[in-house]
Structures
1.
Amino acid sequence: MRGGYLWSPKRKANQAQNPFYDFVREVAQGDVVFSFANTVIRAIGIAASNAYEAPKPLEFGQAGAYWDMIGWRLDVRFSELRLPIKPSRHMSVLAPLLPDRYAPLRLNGAGLQNVYLTSLPQRLAAALIDLLGAEARDLVLGYRVAEEVPFPTAIGLVEWEEHELSRVRSDDTMPETERQSVVLARRGQGIFKQRVMRIEHAYRITGVSREEHLRASHCKPWRDATNEERLDGENGLLLTPNIDHLFDRGFIGFEDGGGLIVSPVANRQSMLRMGIDPHRALNVGGFAIGQRRYLKFHRANVLLPSSFLERI
């Protein structure tokens, strides 16, 4: 809570999906997070970002971040409550409102050890806010701002990319020209862009083809990729800078057959202003076999819909 974020692995140790990790992908900026620990709700957080890929943070016990353990991070501004509550004392109100699946509590109010994060029905969330009182209501309605010093979003993402850049720049086993090419590829430029343009000839959604208006965007993000993948033209699409941002942060993705996928957490008004109508089905044309392999990674590891949320 004091760190100002939530972090979860992407999968269990046996690589099975976990709905309580996957729900992190469904949080939108401005959503309310109830902090429940040791039988008490003692803080409320307001999401300051959408979920994004990030290494396991250094606060988890190792000197330095776990650069090879990539999970979901969510920046949250938490505010500790002066009057916390024990849900177990209010189950006559709360128990009838618990969902049938992925409930955060047992019927007696005890917590469930395996629940990291879950989605609350609106009526249950409203009942909790009522029980917590005016302090919680003011936080949720924005009348009171969490007291932490403001911080930029996607902190963990920036740290991770800077770490990867440092590793490339200090790698003496690579020729200097190759190092420069890998560094330039991070911004969708250089040899990588040239290789993408042999496969992609325009921005698929609007047809913009002027090279200076387009960026070569990695399907398997630069931060996730090997140096070979960072320069592979099949790992790229030509996108305008604003759409590159949406794609890199998982707000949009593509099916192998060319269908555009819009994340449920993407801001609809912003999408429209950037030229994408989230309510209109759009197909941009099929992709090559190599591109499909990278797009599969993007859908599984970057895109922000959760298959579990649809089942609630």
2.
Amino acid sequence: MTIEPILIISAVFLLVGIFASKIAVRTGVPALVLFLAIGMLAGSDGPGGVYFDSPSLAQGVGVVALAFILFSGGLDTQWGHMRPVLLPGLSLATIGVIISATLVGVMASQVLGFTMLEGMLLGAIIASTDAAAVFAMLGGRGIALKGKLKPLIELESGSNDPVAVLLTIGVIQLIGNPDLSPIALIPLFLQQMIIGAAVGWLFSRLIVPLINRLRLEFDGLYPVLTIAAVLLTYGVTAILGGSGFLAVYILGIMMGRAEFIHKRSLGQFHDGIAWLMQIVMFVTLGLQVFPSELPAVAGEGILAALFLLFVARPVSVFIALAASRLTVREKLFISWVGLRGATPIVLATFPVLAGVAQADAIFNLVFFIVLISVLMQGTLAPPMARWLGVQAQSQPPSSLSYVMRDGVISNNLREITLSENSPAAGRQIVDLSLPADVLIMLIGRADDSIIPRGSTILEAGDTVLVLARDNAQDELTQIFGD
């Protein structure tokens, strides 16, 4: 096939995915289900007739897509909201995943005819919630939640992938080498988590100053720089033996806390990249599955999905959050929105590539479980939030909401002329560490008016038009001088 048909087919897939997102908003059906359906319809068993059977390629596409989705989710996360839920979030991401995997493994070995290790493999693959599905549900469905529920759910989905990956790889090793002790997996888990967190933090400390100091002549190169940062962070972490998923998520969170040039536009750019990756990933995974093989596992898939939804997930949530102050209703909602998505399907390709005996059956089961999870949990999430009383009244965003993170500032404009001794003279705006409630609107220099950017260097004699709160005078004096 020449390049032209490939380009046309790719464009059609993307356009159909975009229209599918519109349909999803109007019908309430999660967009991710429609993306999967597009891939299945286009595949060899569907009217599209596109033959695709490459687990290694599907796995590679899924890994890259998840890296960018996690980075975008971290970049959009407000650390001030996440910090209070750090401990319960990490408890869900570790203890919750292990308990859920174990319960599903026992059920699969006792009811579905798997061996204990094969059942644990199925449990490990579907134990983690999916960041792409959760971020899309909370963002795309516009669900406003009370208290700290949203950051807790996002933190869990963004940080539990390393545990699921470790469990999956570990169980595959145990199947291939029965003499290996499960205790040997503990050092591997610590290595993955420590290296992943350390590399993500280190790269954030390098990338942010690089963005601010590089002063690229073309603004379009800044998105290219952040794309390279995501790929480099994941690749280096994986080579060092750490969790690349955790590293890029930490990179996004730490960059979201910092101030850097074009931060807002880069956030919007990576939001678009995240949607592109979701479409590409779910369509690819839809192509990989053969719908004609699904009816054979329908009964087992429904049973496993219902057990996960109504037994394994709630039990793991209530145990992992036993020490938290969350109410029963809040824990029930967290249990309900533990969506499974692309991550389990990507992990289901691992046993296929490793040659595990029941790999094909496990892949089809996982795909069926994901479909049920996204359809049931994703579709019913808004009414479940209302029924459990955890939905907050949504507030229309203020036109000035990007100026500060916790409310709307007053229209208080000040003109400040920088003296020769001003602390701000000779510095880039991004280096001033402006508070969230202070915004430079315009710079007057001689006869020119300059629209400020993060890379703009202030000069003595500049007249700076500043939007700030009424009580920000002390902060302004400290930043700009008398």
